[in-house]
Amino acid sequence: MEERAESGGFRVEPVPFAELDGWGFESGSGDLVHRSGRFFRIRGLRARVESADALQEWHQPIIDQPEVGLLGLVCQEIDGVLHFLMQAKMEPGNPEPVQLSPTVQATRSNLTGAHGGRGVRLLECFHSENHSEVLADVLQSEHGSWFLRKNNRNKVVEISPDRRVPEHPDFRWFSLGALGELLGLDGVVNMDSRSVLACLPAHTDENGSLHSDAEVRSWFAGQRFEQSVNAEPVGLSGLPDWVRERERVRHVGGRYFDVVGVAVRARSREVRGWSQPLLRPVAQGVVAFLARRFGGVPHLLVQARAEPGLVGGVELAPTVQCTPENYAHLPADRRPAFLDMVLPVVEESAPALYRAVHTEEGGRFRDAESLYAVVEAGPDLADPPPGYLWVTPGQLGSLLLHGQYVNVQARTLLACVNTGAVRL
To answer: What residue range is the signal peptide (predicted)?
Structure first.
């Protein structure tokens, strides 16, 4: 990966909005759009989330990218062991330019050649006549706080052992165990790979779980019923509490994220040079599951989390999912539940079952990193508060057979479980 980073000729430089080639602020709405009308736009959003005991309303910029992308992973049995073909791929927003991505990671604009560059390598492996079995194929959400109703097709196909895949220096085969070891390191396996790995078929036997699969689905349906999420797109111009400057759009309180512009050079990408806007969080996020055993069976504490950009409004999320700095100005009782139990792990003053820093989607976010952790909970946390439920990893895996149930942050940690990076 170091060699691929050195050979790629990668350069990412911040630029003011006026120097973004092909991008500009639309007359009237003030949305940041590409002149072709393709790719995506940065627009405004008016959000309202209402539950039985709370009402939240706010405005924010959001990425509107209605097209569905493909996150495709090819696997093959090699010497009796299933291996996965990973790509060393550069994304402009990542601190480390090259990470392990799926075999194919492409938006529809890329797949149809809207960028005018080279075709997507190995796309033919996902045509039905070129693989022997589909192991997973499901639409999954992306970041519901930063994308407006964005979905990707997460697909895993197995090809026959005798089929030869053309070699290329950007592609290598990895066993599932090797990927598990790499998921224990900071910033190596990208978000899209983690999402697809979470969708792999897993053991979903509910014997010993606190709640049956039917009870989990019923609880989740109730949470969606009780939480009303309304997301109304509005113009970026004049968005309350947000200001547009020469080089960024920012929140007046310095919280949440900025919208910035970058110019990119990359010899190994389909297009060798381009510019684009990115969302840049103001600080590192914290994403964590609390875990404990009931009758010897591992369980994870999920929350039913409302996010305005999700198609269904609510999905299952890790116990804690936030950027602590965004709540520093608030009293303790208005900060996220269970954050105090996780912060010692963040500060490395307490042990964890799992701890690593992973980047979020580097194609749309700049320097977006989160500390991902699994923290052992004490025996006193048997009855969680409303909106939280103990489920087994297998139950989460069964829900991933269907889209819009498990959010992308929870999928990252479930991928760590599936690959052995987390020992529960």
So the answer is: none
